[in-house]
Predict the 3D structure of the following.
Amino acid sequence: MVNSASLINQQQSKLLGNSNQESRTIEQAQESIYRFLLDIVKLWSAEDVLQEFHCLFIDQQQDNSGNSEPIQAINELLAWNNEQEFHCTFRRCFYILLNNWKTNKKDKYIHQLIEILSNTNNQYSSSNTGRLKLWINNFLNTKDYEQIKLFASKCQSQANWSDRYTSNLSGTQSNNLRKPTQQQVAFQDRVKPMQHRSKFDLAMYMARSSSSNFNNQPRNPTQLSDEILRLIKVIVAKREPSSYANIANTFIKQNKAINYQQFKQRLHKYLIYAPESTELVDTAKVNFSQKLAVLDEKYHNQNLTDVLLMRTCNRVISYLITENHRTPSALFNSLISQGNHMTLVIALLKIVLICKASRPHLETCITQLSSYYENAPQTEVKSVTNFIEIYKVMFAIYVDNMSVKLN
């Protein structure tokens, strides 16, 4: 096989030209790779596809299939020295394989694909240790690769308790228009049926759970006790699904023409006042007040804008869930350890109702929280399970407008 460095130099000399030619050639190289993978993932065994992926991106010297065209296309991308375009190409290659294997229930090969990348340090041949290795290793440290691993984790068996939640919460990934089409389709296909079924089962259970007809009672679709579900029904009985939305709309209308510092003061009062649950006032008020008071002080004299509203709501959500996007926040630990799950959920509910654009950030934080608790002791898992289940029920009713019939 031609030495890869020599090939790169040849291709660079061949391809350098005006910007139109560069754009056309890069796109052609990308399409050549995509077309090749789309063909083999349908025609070859999954084992052979994995081997070919390894040959294309890890060790081209092992390629015995005679498929020189995709290898040449990869080296053309390397020759252009555009790491961002290479990352986009590599990401889409992943999703071409993931989508097909998920559709055809070949989940185990998804995990084997991740394993190939996790062991790349010792798999590069001496002729291919330059730019390709560097760019792939850089890709493994990106958020795009974290999303790939998150998608792969959802393909595991339901034995992992957090799968139940991350699969429902990751629906926002499919709405991110900056993601490639293959990635959007993957999340949409995976999440939508679960979301619809989950809401339907919940609505049926909430409607019939008080029925005297034992044989007509559906299975509880949550992991919450009947006692907690009865508490939720009491709250719903006191506050119709439109009530929190009306309060949120009133709050926004009354605070449009004030400066940012005044808005934060009123936001604090809006969030901590909850007639059904006042524990936030007693246990976390001081900590929360201090964080909110110093947030973006440089904007204190400016008028509130939509961008500033979303930024503030996102930060408040992080305060309440996870500030470093890896471990639970101090406020979360304080509230959950004292059993104040409903207090926390109502605060999050009120945030999203004044800024719906913050919903994706909230779901991302909860997904990150779920990942943290995957290997936690059972007592901690049970506590966070209750929080997420209450979150799902309350948001289905008050944000997603799931109708609930109270008997």
